[in-house]
């Protein structure tokens, strides 16, 4: 059984505008800010609405995303929480002049 409701043109315009506004807000909330790609293939591993790599990596980690091969060069991951990360293999490259900073970073990982 179907029913029909008759509304005025002005009411229809108000409803239509409201739906468009609400849809616009939803689309804006799903804006991708960070894309993490495989460093060898360039394939997208993870896309995030977060605004920092630290937050994006933590988010991916909580979702169980395998970041093996991820290109995180230049990402500031200081103090990142990797409690639930798959830590089978991790390679960190640094120069001898960065030893102190690298050591602090590794010690700061919350594994």
Describe, in plain words, how this protein is organized in 3D.
The chain is mainly alpha-helical. The chain is built from three helices and two strands, in the order H-E-E-H-H. It has a two-stranded antiparallel ribbon. The radius of gyration is 23 Å and the shape is elongated. Strand 1 and strand 2 form a beta hairpin. It starts with 8 loop residues before the first helix and ends with a helix.
Instruction: Count the E strands.
Output: 2
Low-confidence stretches: none
Tally of individual helices: 3
The overall average pLDDT, rounded, is 80
The assembly state of the depicted protein chains is single chain
Order of helices and strands: HEEHH
Helix percent band: 25-40%
Q: Gap between N and C termini, in Å?
A: 59 Å
């Amino acid at each position: 059984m179907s029913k029909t409701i008759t509304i005025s043109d002005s009411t229809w315009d108000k409803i239509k505008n409201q739906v468009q506004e609400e849809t616009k807000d939803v689309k804006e909330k799903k804006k991708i800010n960070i894309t993490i790609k495989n460093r060898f293939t360039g394939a997208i591993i993870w896309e995030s609405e977060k605004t920092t790599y630290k937050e994006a990596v933590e988010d991916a980690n909580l979702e169980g995303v395998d970041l093996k091969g991820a290109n995180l060069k230049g990402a500031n991951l200081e103090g990142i929480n990797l409690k639930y990360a798959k830590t089978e293999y991790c390679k960190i490259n640094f120069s001898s002049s960065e030893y102190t900073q690298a050591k602090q970073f590794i010690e700061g990982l919350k594994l």
